[in-house]
Protein backbone atom coordinates (compact mmCIF):
# COMPACT_ATOMS: atom_id res chain seq x y z
CA UNK A 1 0.00 0.00 0.00
CA UNK A 2 1.48 3.35 -1.02
CA UNK A 3 1.25 6.41 1.21
CA UNK A 4 0.99 9.89 -0.29
CA UNK A 5 4.14 11.94 0.21
CA UNK A 6 2.29 14.65 2.13
CA UNK A 7 1.12 12.11 4.67
CA UNK A 8 4.62 10.76 5.08
CA UNK A 9 5.97 14.23 5.79
CA UNK A 10 3.25 15.04 8.33
CA UNK A 11 3.53 11.92 10.47
CA UNK A 12 6.87 12.67 12.21
CA UNK A 13 5.79 16.22 13.03
CA UNK A 14 2.69 15.07 14.89
CA UNK A 15 4.44 12.47 17.00
CA UNK A 16 6.53 13.57 19.94
CA UNK A 17 9.00 11.13 21.34
CA UNK A 18 11.82 11.34 23.83
CA UNK A 19 14.00 14.38 23.10
CA UNK A 20 17.73 14.23 23.52
CA UNK A 21 19.24 17.36 25.03
CA UNK A 22 21.80 18.93 22.71
CA UNK A 23 24.69 20.32 24.86
CA UNK A 24 25.69 22.99 22.31
CA UNK A 25 22.14 24.32 22.03
CA UNK A 26 21.66 24.27 25.81
CA UNK A 27 24.93 26.14 26.34
CA UNK A 28 24.03 28.78 23.72
CA UNK A 29 20.65 29.47 25.34
CA UNK A 30 22.21 29.58 28.80
CA UNK A 31 24.87 32.06 27.66
CA UNK A 32 22.24 34.28 26.02
CA UNK A 33 20.07 34.26 29.19
CA UNK A 34 23.08 35.12 31.37
CA UNK A 35 24.06 37.94 29.00
CA UNK A 36 20.55 39.41 28.98
CA UNK A 37 20.32 39.09 32.78
CA UNK A 38 23.65 40.89 33.23
CA UNK A 39 22.67 43.72 30.88
CA UNK A 40 19.28 44.06 32.55
CA UNK A 41 20.78 44.41 36.01
CA UNK A 42 23.47 46.79 34.74
CA UNK A 43 20.91 49.05 33.04
CA UNK A 44 18.30 49.05 35.87
CA UNK A 45 20.24 48.24 39.09
CA UNK A 46 17.07 46.36 40.07
CA UNK A 47 16.87 42.68 41.00
CA UNK A 48 13.11 42.79 40.41
CA UNK A 49 13.68 43.18 36.67
CA UNK A 50 15.49 39.83 36.67
CA UNK A 51 12.07 38.23 37.05
CA UNK A 52 11.65 38.76 33.31
CA UNK A 53 14.70 36.60 32.73
CA UNK A 54 13.16 33.82 34.82
CA UNK A 55 9.92 34.17 32.83
CA UNK A 56 11.95 34.01 29.61
CA UNK A 57 13.62 30.77 30.69
CA UNK A 58 10.21 29.26 31.46
CA UNK A 59 8.81 30.38 28.08
CA UNK A 60 11.83 28.88 26.31
CA UNK A 61 11.36 25.43 27.87
CA UNK A 62 8.73 24.05 25.41
CA UNK A 63 10.62 25.12 22.26
CA UNK A 64 13.83 23.63 23.66
CA UNK A 65 12.64 20.45 25.38
CA UNK A 66 9.90 19.60 22.82
CA UNK A 67 11.52 21.05 19.70
CA UNK A 68 10.10 18.27 17.49
CA UNK A 69 6.48 18.79 18.56
CA UNK A 70 4.17 20.33 15.98
CA UNK A 71 2.29 22.51 18.52
CA UNK A 72 4.36 23.01 21.69
CA UNK A 73 7.56 24.09 19.92
CA UNK A 74 5.97 26.95 17.89
CA UNK A 75 3.95 28.06 20.94
CA UNK A 76 7.15 28.13 22.99
CA UNK A 77 8.81 30.40 20.41
CA UNK A 78 5.79 32.71 20.41
CA UNK A 79 6.05 32.84 24.23
CA UNK A 80 9.73 33.75 24.02
CA UNK A 81 8.97 36.61 21.60
CA UNK A 82 6.11 37.96 23.74
CA UNK A 83 8.09 37.82 27.00
CA UNK A 84 11.19 39.40 25.37
CA UNK A 85 9.22 42.33 23.91
CA UNK A 86 7.22 42.95 27.10
CA UNK A 87 10.47 42.85 29.09
CA UNK A 88 11.95 45.42 26.69
CA UNK A 89 9.36 48.04 27.70
CA UNK A 90 9.67 47.26 31.41
CA UNK A 91 13.49 47.35 31.42
CA UNK A 92 13.52 50.60 29.38
CA UNK A 93 11.22 52.25 31.94
CA UNK A 94 13.29 50.98 34.90
CA UNK A 95 16.51 52.20 33.27
CA UNK A 96 14.97 55.64 32.82
CA UNK A 97 13.94 55.69 36.52
CA UNK A 98 17.45 54.66 37.60
CA UNK A 99 18.95 57.32 35.32
CA UNK A 100 21.32 54.70 33.90
CA UNK A 101 20.09 54.62 30.25
CA UNK A 102 17.49 57.23 29.34
CA UNK A 103 15.28 57.90 26.34
CA UNK A 104 14.01 54.31 26.08
CA UNK A 105 17.37 52.92 25.02
CA UNK A 106 17.28 50.55 27.99
CA UNK A 107 15.30 48.12 25.81
CA UNK A 108 18.66 47.24 24.26
CA UNK A 109 19.37 45.08 27.35
CA UNK A 110 16.68 42.46 26.54
CA UNK A 111 16.00 42.63 22.80
CA UNK A 112 19.15 40.67 21.74
CA UNK A 113 17.34 37.53 22.95
CA UNK A 114 14.81 38.10 20.14
CA UNK A 115 17.35 36.52 17.79
CA UNK A 116 17.04 33.13 19.55
CA UNK A 117 13.43 32.15 18.57
CA UNK A 118 13.78 33.74 15.12
CA UNK A 119 17.03 31.89 14.39
CA UNK A 120 15.54 28.61 15.66
CA UNK A 121 12.59 28.95 13.25
CA UNK A 122 14.89 29.89 10.39
CA UNK A 123 17.20 26.93 10.97
CA UNK A 124 14.17 24.64 10.85
CA UNK A 125 13.27 26.23 7.50
CA UNK A 126 10.00 27.71 8.80
CA UNK A 127 9.96 31.06 7.02
CA UNK A 128 6.22 31.48 7.46
CA UNK A 129 6.55 31.01 11.22
CA UNK A 130 9.47 33.48 11.26
CA UNK A 131 7.34 36.12 9.54
CA UNK A 132 4.54 35.51 12.06
CA UNK A 133 7.01 35.88 14.95
CA UNK A 134 8.18 39.22 13.54
CA UNK A 135 4.58 40.42 13.40
CA UNK A 136 3.98 39.30 16.99
CA UNK A 137 7.19 41.05 18.07
CA UNK A 138 6.22 44.37 16.43
CA UNK A 139 2.75 44.32 17.99
CA UNK A 140 4.07 43.35 21.45
CA UNK A 141 6.72 46.10 21.35
CA UNK A 142 4.03 48.71 20.70
CA UNK A 143 1.83 47.34 23.51
CA UNK A 144 4.79 47.17 25.90
CA UNK A 145 5.81 50.76 25.14
CA UNK A 146 2.25 51.93 25.80
CA UNK A 147 1.88 49.92 29.02
CA UNK A 148 5.21 51.01 30.53
CA UNK A 149 5.06 54.53 29.07
CA UNK A 150 8.34 54.29 27.19
CA UNK A 151 7.13 55.57 23.85
CA UNK A 152 10.29 57.56 23.27
CA UNK A 153 12.31 57.98 20.12
CA UNK A 154 15.12 55.87 21.54
CA UNK A 155 12.74 53.02 22.35
CA UNK A 156 11.36 53.01 18.82
CA UNK A 157 14.88 53.15 17.35
CA UNK A 158 16.01 50.12 19.33
CA UNK A 159 12.84 48.19 18.45
CA UNK A 160 13.17 48.93 14.72
CA UNK A 161 16.83 47.96 14.81
CA UNK A 162 16.09 44.52 16.24
CA UNK A 163 13.09 43.99 13.99
CA UNK A 164 15.32 44.62 10.97
CA UNK A 165 17.95 42.25 12.32
CA UNK A 166 15.24 39.68 12.99
CA UNK A 167 14.04 40.00 9.36
CA UNK A 168 17.60 39.46 8.14
CA UNK A 169 17.87 36.35 10.29
CA UNK A 170 14.55 35.04 8.99
CA UNK A 171 15.20 35.54 5.28
CA UNK A 172 18.98 35.22 4.98
CA UNK A 173 19.65 32.09 7.05
CA UNK A 174 18.80 29.65 4.24
CA UNK A 175 21.00 31.57 1.79
CA UNK A 176 23.87 31.59 4.26
CA UNK A 177 23.40 27.88 4.88
CA UNK A 178 23.80 27.17 1.15
CA UNK A 179 26.83 29.47 0.85
CA UNK A 180 28.59 27.95 3.84
CA UNK A 181 27.81 24.36 2.84
CA UNK A 182 30.92 22.78 1.28
CA UNK A 183 30.45 22.08 -2.41
CA UNK A 184 30.00 18.49 -3.44
CA UNK A 185 33.03 16.97 -5.02
CA UNK A 186 32.50 16.83 -8.78
CA UNK A 187 33.21 13.29 -9.98
CA UNK A 188 35.42 12.74 -12.98
CA UNK A 189 33.42 12.26 -16.21
CA UNK A 190 34.60 8.69 -16.78
CA UNK A 191 34.07 7.75 -13.12
CA UNK A 192 30.54 9.15 -13.26
CA UNK A 193 29.87 7.37 -16.55
CA UNK A 194 31.12 4.09 -15.08
CA UNK A 195 28.85 4.50 -12.07
CA UNK A 196 25.78 5.26 -14.18
CA UNK A 197 26.44 2.47 -16.67
CA UNK A 198 26.95 -0.01 -13.83
CA UNK A 199 23.58 1.00 -12.40
CA UNK A 200 22.02 0.70 -15.86
CA UNK A 201 23.43 -2.80 -16.28
CA UNK A 202 22.04 -3.86 -12.90
CA UNK A 203 18.63 -2.43 -13.75
CA UNK A 204 18.64 -4.04 -17.19
CA UNK A 205 19.34 -7.46 -15.68
CA UNK A 206 16.41 -7.07 -13.28
CA UNK A 207 13.89 -6.14 -15.99
CA UNK A 208 11.34 -8.71 -17.22
CA UNK A 209 13.10 -10.70 -19.89
CA UNK A 210 16.31 -8.79 -19.11
CA UNK A 211 15.87 -6.78 -22.32
CA UNK A 212 16.16 -3.14 -23.32
CA UNK A 213 15.24 -3.66 -26.96
CA UNK A 214 13.01 -0.86 -28.36
CA UNK A 215 11.60 -3.17 -31.06
CA UNK A 216 10.65 -5.89 -28.60
CA UNK A 217 9.08 -3.42 -26.18
CA UNK A 218 7.11 -1.84 -29.05
CA UNK A 219 5.80 -5.20 -30.26
CA UNK A 220 4.74 -6.11 -26.73
CA UNK A 221 2.90 -2.78 -26.46
CA UNK A 222 0.98 -3.46 -29.66
CA UNK A 223 -0.03 -6.87 -28.31
CA UNK A 224 -1.33 -5.23 -25.13
CA UNK A 225 -3.32 -2.66 -27.12
CA UNK A 226 -4.92 -5.37 -29.23
CA UNK A 227 -6.88 -6.43 -26.15
CA UNK A 228 -8.29 -2.98 -25.34
CA UNK A 229 -8.92 -1.32 -28.73
CA UNK A 230 -10.02 -2.42 -32.22
CA UNK A 231 -7.45 -2.15 -34.97
CA UNK A 232 -6.70 -3.54 -38.42
CA UNK A 233 -3.35 -1.72 -38.46
CA UNK A 234 -1.11 -0.42 -35.69
CA UNK A 235 2.40 0.93 -35.31
CA UNK A 236 4.83 2.40 -32.80
CA UNK A 237 7.00 5.26 -34.05
CA UNK A 238 9.86 7.08 -32.35
CA UNK A 239 11.89 10.17 -33.07
CA UNK A 240 14.85 10.20 -35.41
CA UNK A 241 17.08 12.88 -36.87
CA UNK A 242 15.88 15.63 -39.18
CA UNK A 243 12.37 15.93 -37.76
CA UNK A 244 11.34 12.46 -38.94
CA UNK A 245 9.96 9.39 -37.21
CA UNK A 246 11.09 5.78 -37.48
CA UNK A 247 8.86 2.73 -37.27
CA UNK A 248 9.83 0.51 -34.34
CA UNK A 249 7.08 -2.07 -34.82
CA UNK A 250 3.82 -2.51 -36.69
CA UNK A 251 1.09 -5.06 -37.11
CA UNK A 252 -1.75 -5.59 -39.53
CA UNK A 253 -2.87 -7.58 -42.53
CA UNK A 254 -1.04 -5.14 -44.79
CA UNK A 255 2.17 -3.18 -44.43
CA UNK A 256 1.51 0.55 -44.16
CA UNK A 257 3.64 3.45 -45.35
CA UNK A 258 2.95 5.60 -42.31
CA UNK A 259 3.41 9.35 -42.47
CA UNK A 260 6.77 9.86 -40.76
CA UNK A 261 7.27 13.62 -41.06
CA UNK A 262 6.34 15.97 -38.24
CA UNK A 263 5.67 18.99 -40.45
CA UNK A 264 2.75 17.42 -42.33
CA UNK A 265 -0.92 18.21 -41.70
CA UNK A 266 -1.77 15.00 -39.88
CA UNK A 267 -2.89 13.59 -36.56
CA UNK A 268 0.66 12.34 -36.09
CA UNK A 269 2.11 15.87 -36.14
CA UNK A 270 -0.73 17.20 -33.95
CA UNK A 271 -0.31 14.47 -31.33
CA UNK A 272 3.44 15.05 -31.21
CA UNK A 273 3.07 18.82 -30.79
CA UNK A 274 0.19 18.83 -28.27
CA UNK A 275 1.09 15.64 -26.35
CA UNK A 276 -2.61 14.78 -26.46
CA UNK A 277 -4.36 11.82 -28.17
CA UNK A 278 -5.77 12.66 -31.61
CA UNK A 279 -8.62 10.92 -33.39
CA UNK A 280 -9.41 11.28 -37.07
CA UNK A 281 -11.69 9.82 -39.73
CA UNK A 282 -8.83 9.44 -42.22
CA UNK A 283 -5.78 7.25 -42.42
CA UNK A 284 -2.38 8.35 -41.14
CA UNK A 285 -0.64 6.60 -44.05
CA UNK A 286 0.79 8.38 -47.09
CA UNK A 287 -1.29 6.16 -49.35
CA UNK A 288 -4.62 4.55 -48.54
CA UNK A 289 -7.25 2.72 -50.58
CA UNK A 290 -10.13 4.83 -49.21
CA UNK A 291 -13.33 3.83 -47.45
CA UNK A 292 -14.38 4.23 -43.83
CA UNK A 293 -11.40 4.65 -41.52
CA UNK A 294 -10.95 5.58 -37.88
CA UNK A 295 -7.48 6.43 -36.60
CA UNK A 296 -6.16 7.10 -33.12
CA UNK A 297 -2.72 8.60 -32.46
CA UNK A 298 -1.53 8.51 -28.85
CA UNK A 299 1.72 10.25 -27.87
CA UNK A 300 4.19 8.37 -25.68
CA UNK A 301 5.25 10.98 -23.13
CA UNK A 302 7.97 10.44 -20.53
CA UNK A 303 8.10 13.37 -18.13
CA UNK A 304 7.73 16.42 -20.34
CA UNK A 305 9.26 14.88 -23.48
CA UNK A 306 7.46 13.12 -26.31
CA UNK A 307 9.49 10.04 -27.19
CA UNK A 308 7.17 8.33 -29.65
CA UNK A 309 3.67 7.70 -30.94
CA UNK A 310 1.24 4.80 -31.11
CA UNK A 311 -1.05 4.67 -34.14
CA UNK A 312 -4.19 2.54 -34.25
CA UNK A 313 -6.43 2.30 -37.33
CA UNK A 314 -9.51 0.30 -38.16
CA UNK A 315 -11.73 0.16 -41.24
CA UNK A 316 -14.85 1.49 -39.51
CA UNK A 317 -16.12 4.91 -38.52
CA UNK A 318 -16.32 6.16 -34.93
CA UNK A 319 -14.27 3.27 -33.55
CA UNK A 320 -12.36 5.29 -30.94
CA UNK A 321 -14.70 7.02 -28.47
CA UNK A 322 -13.34 8.66 -25.32
CA UNK A 323 -13.74 5.45 -23.30
CA UNK A 324 -11.47 3.55 -25.70
CA UNK A 325 -8.98 6.41 -25.79
CA UNK A 326 -8.77 6.35 -22.00
CA UNK A 327 -8.19 2.59 -22.00
CA UNK A 328 -5.41 2.99 -24.55
CA UNK A 329 -3.69 5.78 -22.59
CA UNK A 330 -3.77 3.63 -19.44
CA UNK A 331 -1.67 1.08 -21.32
CA UNK A 332 0.65 3.53 -23.09
CA UNK A 333 1.51 5.48 -19.92
CA UNK A 334 3.69 2.80 -18.27
CA UNK A 335 4.97 1.67 -21.67
CA UNK A 336 6.37 5.16 -22.31
CA UNK A 337 8.83 4.79 -19.45
CA UNK A 338 9.93 1.34 -20.64
CA UNK A 339 10.43 2.57 -24.19
CA UNK A 340 12.34 5.67 -23.05
CA UNK A 341 14.72 3.48 -21.04
CA UNK A 342 15.29 1.24 -24.07
CA UNK A 343 15.90 4.19 -26.42
CA UNK A 344 18.30 5.81 -23.97
CA UNK A 345 20.16 2.53 -23.60
CA UNK A 346 20.41 2.29 -27.39
CA UNK A 347 21.79 5.84 -27.55
CA UNK A 348 24.35 5.16 -24.82
CA UNK A 349 25.46 1.93 -26.48
CA UNK A 350 25.73 3.58 -29.92
CA UNK A 351 27.69 6.54 -28.56
CA UNK A 352 30.03 4.30 -26.61
CA UNK A 353 30.56 2.01 -29.61
CA UNK A 354 31.23 4.89 -32.02
CA UNK A 355 33.61 6.56 -29.59
CA UNK A 356 35.54 3.32 -29.16
CA UNK A 357 35.72 2.74 -32.92
CA UNK A 358 37.03 6.26 -33.48
CA UNK A 359 39.56 5.83 -30.66
CA UNK A 360 40.83 2.57 -32.12
CA UNK A 361 41.08 4.15 -35.56
CA UNK A 362 43.17 7.02 -34.19
CA UNK A 363 45.47 4.70 -32.23
CA UNK A 364 46.02 2.39 -35.21
CA UNK A 365 46.65 5.30 -37.56
CA UNK A 366 49.08 7.02 -35.21
CA UNK A 367 50.74 3.81 -34.02
CA UNK A 368 50.90 0.58 -36.03
CA UNK A 369 50.18 2.21 -39.40
CA UNK A 370 52.99 4.74 -39.04
CA UNK A 371 55.42 2.06 -37.87
CA UNK A 372 54.61 -0.15 -40.86
CA UNK A 373 55.21 2.78 -43.21
CA UNK A 374 58.63 3.25 -41.60
CA UNK A 375 59.35 -0.46 -42.06
CA UNK A 376 58.52 -0.07 -45.75
CA UNK A 377 60.91 2.87 -46.05
CA UNK A 378 63.61 0.79 -44.34
CA UNK A 379 63.16 -2.01 -46.86
CA UNK A 380 63.37 0.50 -49.71
CA UNK A 381 66.63 1.85 -48.30
CA UNK A 382 68.00 -1.67 -47.92
CA UNK A 383 67.16 -2.42 -51.55
CA UNK A 384 68.86 0.75 -52.72
CA UNK A 385 72.11 -0.05 -50.91
CA UNK A 386 72.43 -3.73 -51.98
CA UNK A 387 75.71 -4.58 -53.67
CA UNK A 388 75.72 -5.84 -57.23
CA UNK A 389 75.11 -9.54 -57.64
CA UNK A 390 72.84 -9.96 -54.61
CA UNK A 391 69.85 -10.90 -56.72
CA UNK A 392 68.52 -13.48 -54.27
CA UNK A 393 68.50 -10.96 -51.41
CA UNK A 394 66.95 -8.33 -53.65
CA UNK A 395 64.12 -10.70 -54.57
CA UNK A 396 63.45 -11.46 -50.91
CA UNK A 397 63.37 -7.76 -50.11
CA UNK A 398 60.94 -7.13 -53.00
CA UNK A 399 58.68 -9.91 -51.69
CA UNK A 400 58.88 -8.48 -48.18
CA UNK A 401 58.14 -4.97 -49.49
CA UNK A 402 55.08 -6.23 -51.35
CA UNK A 403 53.81 -7.95 -48.19
CA UNK A 404 54.30 -4.77 -46.13
CA UNK A 405 52.44 -2.80 -48.80
CA UNK A 406 49.59 -5.33 -48.68
CA UNK A 407 49.38 -5.11 -44.87
CA UNK A 408 49.35 -1.29 -45.02
CA UNK A 409 46.52 -1.43 -47.57
CA UNK A 410 44.54 -3.81 -45.36
CA UNK A 411 45.16 -1.55 -42.40
CA UNK A 412 43.90 1.50 -44.26
CA UNK A 413 40.78 -0.36 -45.30
CA UNK A 414 40.26 -1.39 -41.68
CA UNK A 415 40.57 2.25 -40.63
CA UNK A 416 38.00 3.18 -43.27
CA UNK A 417 35.67 0.49 -41.90
CA UNK A 418 36.11 1.72 -38.32
CA UNK A 419 35.33 5.30 -39.30
CA UNK A 420 32.34 4.50 -41.53
CA UNK A 421 28.97 5.54 -40.14
CA UNK A 422 25.43 5.92 -41.41
CA UNK A 423 24.83 9.55 -42.29
CA UNK A 424 21.45 10.69 -40.94
CA UNK A 425 20.87 12.51 -44.24
CA UNK A 426 22.34 9.96 -46.65
CA UNK A 427 20.83 6.78 -45.23
CA UNK A 428 21.86 3.15 -44.93
CA UNK A 429 22.08 2.38 -48.65
CA UNK A 430 24.46 5.27 -49.30
CA UNK A 431 26.78 4.16 -46.48
CA UNK A 432 26.88 0.56 -47.75
CA UNK A 433 27.46 1.76 -51.33
CA UNK A 434 30.40 3.96 -50.31
CA UNK A 435 32.04 1.11 -48.43
CA UNK A 436 31.48 -1.42 -51.25
CA UNK A 437 32.87 0.98 -53.88
CA UNK A 438 36.00 1.65 -51.83
CA UNK A 439 36.74 -2.01 -51.16
CA UNK A 440 35.78 -3.05 -54.68
CA UNK A 441 38.22 -0.58 -56.17
CA UNK A 442 41.05 -1.75 -53.91
CA UNK A 443 40.48 -5.40 -54.80
CA UNK A 444 39.65 -5.01 -58.49
CA UNK A 445 36.06 -6.20 -57.99
CA UNK A 446 33.16 -5.15 -60.17
CA UNK A 447 30.43 -4.09 -57.75
CA UNK A 448 26.74 -4.18 -58.75
CA UNK A 449 24.21 -2.28 -56.62
CA UNK A 450 20.44 -2.67 -56.26
CA UNK A 451 18.80 -0.29 -53.80
CA UNK A 452 15.11 -0.22 -52.89
CA UNK A 453 14.90 2.18 -49.95
CA UNK A 454 11.79 3.74 -48.47
CA UNK A 455 11.74 7.39 -47.44
CA UNK A 456 11.09 6.14 -43.90
CA UNK A 457 14.11 5.32 -41.76
CA UNK A 458 15.08 2.53 -39.41
CA UNK A 459 16.26 3.37 -35.88
CA UNK A 460 19.83 4.66 -35.84
CA UNK A 461 21.12 1.73 -33.78
CA UNK A 462 19.54 -0.76 -36.20
CA UNK A 463 21.03 0.96 -39.24
CA UNK A 464 24.46 0.90 -37.59
CA UNK A 465 24.29 -2.86 -36.97
CA UNK A 466 23.11 -3.55 -40.54
CA UNK A 467 26.01 -1.48 -41.90
CA UNK A 468 28.52 -3.50 -39.83
CA UNK A 469 27.02 -6.79 -41.05
CA UNK A 470 27.24 -5.62 -44.68
CA UNK A 471 30.84 -4.47 -44.12
CA UNK A 472 31.84 -7.86 -42.70
CA UNK A 473 30.17 -9.71 -45.59
CA UNK A 474 31.88 -7.50 -48.21
CA UNK A 475 35.24 -7.82 -46.46
CA UNK A 476 34.96 -11.62 -46.34
CA UNK A 477 34.14 -11.73 -50.05
CA UNK A 478 37.12 -9.51 -50.87
CA UNK A 479 39.60 -11.38 -48.67
CA UNK A 480 38.63 -15.04 -48.97
CA UNK A 481 36.34 -15.65 -51.95
CA UNK A 482 38.69 -14.83 -54.84
CA UNK A 483 35.70 -13.32 -56.66
CA UNK A 484 35.52 -11.08 -59.70
CA UNK A 485 32.03 -9.66 -59.11
CA UNK A 486 30.12 -8.51 -56.04
CA UNK A 487 26.36 -7.95 -55.90
CA UNK A 488 24.97 -5.78 -53.09
CA UNK A 489 21.22 -5.48 -52.58
CA UNK A 490 19.67 -3.18 -49.98
CA UNK A 491 15.93 -3.22 -49.38
CA UNK A 492 14.53 -1.00 -46.62
CA UNK A 493 10.82 -0.64 -45.83
CA UNK A 494 10.71 -0.02 -42.04
CA UNK A 495 10.48 -1.96 -39.89
CA UNK A 496 11.47 -4.47 -42.61
CA UNK A 497 14.96 -4.50 -44.09
CA UNK A 498 17.09 -6.96 -46.05
CA UNK A 499 20.77 -6.62 -46.93
CA UNK A 500 22.21 -9.19 -49.34
CA UNK A 501 25.85 -9.55 -50.42
CA UNK A 502 26.71 -12.12 -53.12
CA UNK A 503 29.95 -12.99 -54.87
CA UNK A 504 31.03 -15.31 -57.69
CA UNK A 505 34.06 -16.65 -55.84
CA UNK A 506 35.04 -20.12 -54.77
CA UNK A 507 32.10 -20.57 -52.42
CA UNK A 508 31.97 -21.19 -48.71
CA UNK A 509 34.84 -23.64 -48.64
CA UNK A 510 37.16 -21.44 -46.64
CA UNK A 511 37.81 -22.87 -43.21
CA UNK A 512 40.11 -20.15 -41.93
CA UNK A 513 39.48 -19.34 -38.24
CA UNK A 514 39.16 -15.61 -38.92
CA UNK A 515 36.45 -16.33 -41.46
CA UNK A 516 34.44 -18.34 -38.95
CA UNK A 517 34.96 -15.58 -36.41
CA UNK A 518 33.56 -13.04 -38.86
CA UNK A 519 30.45 -15.16 -39.36
CA UNK A 520 30.00 -15.39 -35.61
CA UNK A 521 30.19 -11.61 -35.30
CA UNK A 522 27.59 -11.17 -38.03
CA UNK A 523 25.26 -13.65 -36.36
CA UNK A 524 25.61 -11.85 -33.01
CA UNK A 525 24.88 -8.49 -34.62
CA UNK A 526 21.80 -9.88 -36.38
CA UNK A 527 20.54 -11.39 -33.13
CA UNK A 528 21.04 -8.06 -31.34
CA UNK A 529 18.58 -6.32 -33.69
CA UNK A 530 16.26 -9.36 -33.76
CA UNK A 531 17.20 -10.16 -37.35
CA UNK A 532 18.04 -13.41 -39.17
CA UNK A 533 21.37 -14.21 -40.85
CA UNK A 534 21.27 -16.52 -43.88
CA UNK A 535 24.33 -17.93 -45.68
CA UNK A 536 23.64 -19.89 -48.87
CA UNK A 537 25.65 -21.05 -51.91
CA UNK A 538 25.20 -19.00 -55.07
CA UNK A 539 24.69 -20.79 -58.41
CA UNK A 540 26.90 -21.52 -60.27
CA UNK A 541 29.60 -20.34 -57.85
CA UNK A 542 30.04 -18.11 -54.91
CA UNK A 543 28.24 -17.36 -51.67
CA UNK A 544 25.27 -15.22 -50.63
CA UNK A 545 25.12 -13.65 -47.19
CA UNK A 546 21.82 -12.01 -46.25
CA UNK A 547 20.43 -10.44 -43.10
CA UNK A 548 16.67 -10.00 -42.83
CA UNK A 549 14.90 -7.81 -40.32
CA UNK A 550 11.15 -8.14 -39.81
CA UNK A 551 8.71 -9.49 -42.39
CA UNK A 552 8.59 -8.38 -46.04
CA UNK A 553 5.76 -6.09 -47.18
CA UNK A 554 2.73 -7.68 -48.73
CA UNK A 555 2.12 -4.81 -51.08
CA UNK A 556 4.22 -2.10 -52.68
CA UNK A 557 5.09 0.86 -50.53
CA UNK A 558 5.83 4.38 -51.58
CA UNK A 559 9.59 4.25 -52.04
CA UNK A 560 12.53 6.10 -53.42
CA UNK A 561 14.18 3.40 -55.47
CA UNK A 562 17.66 3.59 -56.95
CA UNK A 563 19.24 0.96 -59.15
CA UNK A 564 22.87 1.44 -60.14
CA UNK A 565 24.23 -0.07 -63.32
CA UNK A 566 26.69 -2.88 -63.26
CA UNK A 567 30.26 -2.08 -62.64
CA UNK A 568 29.65 1.20 -60.88
Automatic annotation (TrEMBL):
UniProt key word Membrane: yes
UniProt keyword list: Kinase, Membrane, Transferase, Transmembrane, Transmembrane helix, Two-component regulatory system
InterPro entries registered for this protein in UniProt: GAF, GAF-like_dom_sf, HATPase_C_sf, HATPase_dom, Sensor_HK_TwoCompSys, Sig_transdc_His_kin_sub3_dim/P
SMART domains the UniProt entry points to: HATPase_c (SM00387)
Transmembrane portions of the chain: 26-43, 49-66, 101-123, 130-148
Organism of provenance: Actinoplanes subglobosus
PANTHER family cross-referenced by the UniProt entry: NITRATE/NITRITE SENSOR PROTEIN NARX-RELATED (PTHR24421), OXYGEN SENSOR HISTIDINE KINASE NREB (PTHR24421:SF61)
Residue span(s) of domain Histidine kinase/HSP90-like ATPase: 461-553
The protein, known as: GAF domain-containing sensor histidine kinase
A GO term for molecular function: kinase activity
KW Acetylation (keyword) present: no
Amino acid sequence: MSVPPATIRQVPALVSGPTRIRPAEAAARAVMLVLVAALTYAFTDSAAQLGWIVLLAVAAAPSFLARGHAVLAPLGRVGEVVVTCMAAGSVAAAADDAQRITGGFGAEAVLPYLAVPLLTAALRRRQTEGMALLGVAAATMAVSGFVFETLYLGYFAVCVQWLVQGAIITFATETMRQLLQPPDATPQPYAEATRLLTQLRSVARSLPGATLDPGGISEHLLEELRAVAPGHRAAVLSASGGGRLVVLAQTGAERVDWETTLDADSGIADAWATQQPQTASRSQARSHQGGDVSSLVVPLVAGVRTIGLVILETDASGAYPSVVVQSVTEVTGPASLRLEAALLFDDVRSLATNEERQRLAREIHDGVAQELVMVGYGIDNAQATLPEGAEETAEELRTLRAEVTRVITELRLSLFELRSEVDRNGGLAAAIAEYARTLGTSAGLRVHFTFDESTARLPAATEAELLRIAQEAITNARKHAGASNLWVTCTVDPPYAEIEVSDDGKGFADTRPDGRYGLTIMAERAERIRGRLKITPRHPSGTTVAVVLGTPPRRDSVRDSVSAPEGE
